[in-house]
């Protein structure tokens, strides 16, 4: 996802279902291939196009995204419904998101998540509900949150860091609250999956410290160091969320889309042949490799947002590494694709070639562990400035396909 908006993974290194089945579809695809698109709502990145639209206008824009997914023979929409400790459904835990009306806590006059699930399913699309666990706000002043916000009621839960506000993952009461807020949506709606992005502990900010001293003093006994304790906190969130999803709505999947590099090989012999500036294990305290190897999650969709041959983080090397991690596990591997880079003049030359993304899918098809791709994000799916997505569809998505189960 983009650094500002949906995940931070884009800077740190330096799929969907068409309607129904098709008897003529290749067997490999008919047996399951995720074709997904992310719909980022934070900061109105993909939807709605701006705050304050009428309910009818918001719904029309959402329907257009779903229809575009069908047109491109995708089968899954990954819809961000909790962008900043808020909600795109009537939640008893958190306020309505300000991306809808421009005012946090103001009801939009309809139920975006409920509508998205219904309309996606009517089109043969899966709907994966995407939640950001710990981000409270992309600014640092708690007084700008609605007075009833849980972060204002529980200021001891909040850490200011990098000009933003976060819930402290080291507090058990925070973890319980975050899980309850997320699982409210699972109880209310037949979502096909719960989806986390790449934010756990925040991406490092030079010269700043994430102040969790008090929590570490209270809960850190028995751990070798603070980093090990932090990883344990994130492990608990993942394991507990997975277990509770299965209790509430059996059959609903749990997937995570981390930054694409677990650890560089120079740091760990099990790591990838990369020189990324961020390593999820060390910097975000997310042991993404373990979650796959231990079968804690149903799928992983690493954000491999670099071109083939990129020196610090080569797409080809990372797909191979992740395929090796997933081999022999029950965790499905999907690849997160940087559609947003295609045609962006700020990106390297490879991204000016409309065929770059299509080459990604051709390369990934060599690995049986790769069960599909998800594209960031919906805005670029619609505009497709250099025809990169059209090329993917023409080369790889000639027939509809069902997502893996």
From TrEMBL:
Residue ranges constituting the Glycosyl hydrolase-like domain according to the UniProt record: 33-347
InterPro entries according to UniProt: Divisome_Glycosyl_Hydrolase, GH, GHL10
Keywords: Signal
SUPFAM superfamilies hit by this protein: (Trans)glycosidases (SSF51445)
Keyword Signal: yes
Name by which UniProt lists this protein: Family 10 glycosylhydrolase
